[in-house]
Amino acid sequence: MDKNSITGLFLITAILLLFYWVNKPSEEEIAARKRQLDSLNRIEQLKAEQAVMNNDSIHNVAEAAQRIQKPIRDDSSLMRAAGILAPYLDGEQKFYTLENEKIKVEFSNLGGRIYSVQLKDYKTFNGSPLVLFSGDDNRYGFTFTYNTRIYNTNDLFFDAVNIQNNAISFEISGPDGEKLAMNYSLTEDGFMVHHSLETQNLGNSFATPRNTLDLEWVQNMPAQEKGRQFEQQYSGIYFKYYQDEVDDISGKGDKSEDLRTPLKWVAFKDQFFSSVLIANKTFGSGVVETQTNEDAAGPLLRKNQAELAIPFRFEDNPSVEMQFYFGPNHFYTLRSFKDLDLHQLLPLGWGIFGWINRYAVIPVFNFLEGFIGNYGIIILILTILIKLILFPLTYKSYMSTAKMRVLKPQIEEINERIPKEKALERQQATMALYRKAGVNPMGGCLPMLLQMPILIAMFRFFPASIELRQESFLWASDLSTYDSIFNLPFNIPFYGNHVSLFTLLMAITNIIYTRINQEMTQSSAQMPGMKGMMYMMPVMFLFFFNSYAAGLSYYYFISTLITIGQTILIRQFVDEEAIMAKLKANQKKPVKKSKFQARLEAMQKQQAQMQKAGKGKRR
């Protein structure tokens, strides 16, 4: 190596050393960059751990592969990657509160999200404030890419701006007018929270895969009621397809559904309360999943999760308008939101059962609420009104039974005259007697069958009626759940570990009514085995209703008691001798056969001839 080469190398080394010394970062800059690097590494590690821990939930395997990024090699690559987000990757979590007369909503600058929601007018079964969710039990955030890296708003510390009495905004901003904002506002007196995601000048570096913004909403739902079994049964995820019907995944067990058509709203529903996310336009598609907590003593009821895709392009400076409903599952409150069909969150039954509840039971119930403050009295009056409306059917059923009873001696004579071996002949003779007397053997059953829709409608109404929640009557402290007069030290299968007095009274009155019916009919003489079967139903009620709503058991008890009273009263005013005289007069009249009866008799004669022919061939 010559002298010139040595001199050149020396000068290059000196220039590099001088450049390093001039551009050397200060100790403060080194510390700041180290904190940013540690924060990013911590966030990435938490994301990776969360994805791995939840690898059995929706899309988490794919998300884990996306979120685990390559390690950042130096400070310069960190700064280039984080860009305008770098100041928002680390910070101090702060809380802000908005409230009106109905709800109290707490917000966090971490994620710019709702942190907790309290309903002011309600308490849990043990008297604590009713909180729909709080803290990390609610995760709500949007996923996007920035400089090819994946971020979620849940992991960013927003700046709280535009704080007002009923509104607040959380914002991320850049030096060139870039803005990502989460805006919230409350109505003056209601359960709605208006929410929007606002963007500005983010098209250069921000992007969304498939031109959709992915929204993740996860909520651990706490148990609020004493009757946990039925609270789980009536909770889950409900969703409305755009301009279409409402569907759900609810009840016990773990369930999920891939929703490939546009949605209007998604609701995380409890027995009496709901958190509903409503799109101003639509959600493009989504996946919903609910998982039941099997720990009967645990504080959490279930875990609900929804992943929704929103059509979105940062280049268009879009904003996404939405609303949250945090409130009770009250029929008229939910129906006041026009064209949303939120009232279908109440499981009032399908078809005619739902119609009876929506257009008869609920209006009468709410009308009586305006005059009477005791819900036990309201149920009593409602039951009396229903029994009065159904009285014509009850009277017709009794008269049909009375006719069957006065014909009992003639039926017994037929049974003695025709042996059991000739069952078809005995049946033909019995039906002939009914036709001559003008008695319909099904006349006592049909009126009762017509009453069944009302009974089933009431069965659906009481567990879903928030009006009965924590309303006491007599010994029942809460008509929306079971009443207990004695707690057992052990659990009886299918019965429980308590004794419900209303259920016991309901079962006893049903046994009495069954006894009265058997005394009035001849069916026990014809089918002795049915006598015991008739008593099985009240016993089954005793087991089935023991953990059900006390209001329903009370209604069935009062309804059966009134039916017994009606039966005894009608019996006092019905002259059975006059009925017998009328039936004998009918027997003397010529009987005009219907076409159906004629065909039936022809078929019976043909069957009898075939039997005789078969016997002749065997001989």
Question: How are the elements arranged and paired?
Answer:
Blueprint: H1 3-23, H2 27-53, H3 60-67, H4 75-82, E1 95-99, E2 103-108, E3 113-123, E4 129-134, E5 138-146, E6 149-152, E7 159-161, E8 167-173, E9 179-186, E10 192-200, E11 206-207, E12 212-222, H5 228-233, E13 236-241, E14 246-250, E15 255-259, E16 263-269, E17 273-283, E18 285-292, E19 300-311, E20 319-328, H6 331-335, H7 351-369, H8 375-389, H9 391-406, H10 408-417, H11 423-437, H12 445-464, E21 486-492, E22 496-499, H13 501-520, H14 523-526, H15 529-544, H16 550-573, H17 576-588, H18 595-618
Antiparallel strand pairs: 1-2, 2-3, 3-4, 5-6, 5-11, 5-12, 7-8, 8-9, 9-10, 10-20, 12-19, 13-14, 13-16, 15-18, 16-17, 17-20, 18-19, 21-22
Helix pairs in contact: 2-3, 7-8, 7-12, 8-16, 9-12, 9-16, 10-11, 11-17, 13-15, 13-16
The CA-CA distance between the termini, in Å, is: 134 Å
Number of helices: 18
Spatial sequence of strands, sheet with the most strands: 7-8-9-10-20-17-16-13-14
CATH class of the largest domain: Mainly Beta
Total discrete domains: 3
Which class of secondary structure composition applies to the elements? Answer: alpha+beta
Envelope shape: elongated
| Subunit arrangement of the protein | single chain
Name the poorly predicted regions. Answer: 1-9, 18-23, 28-74
Radius of gyration: 36 Å
- Give the averaged pLDDT, no decimals: 79
Helix content: 40-55%
* Main sheet specs: 9 strands, antiparallel
The count of DSSP E runs of length 2 or more, i.e. the number of strands, is 22
Beta-strand content estimate: 25-35%
What is the fold-level CATH name, i.e. the topology of the largest domain? Beta-galactosidase, Chain A, domain 5
CATH architecture annotation of the largest domain: Distorted Sandwich
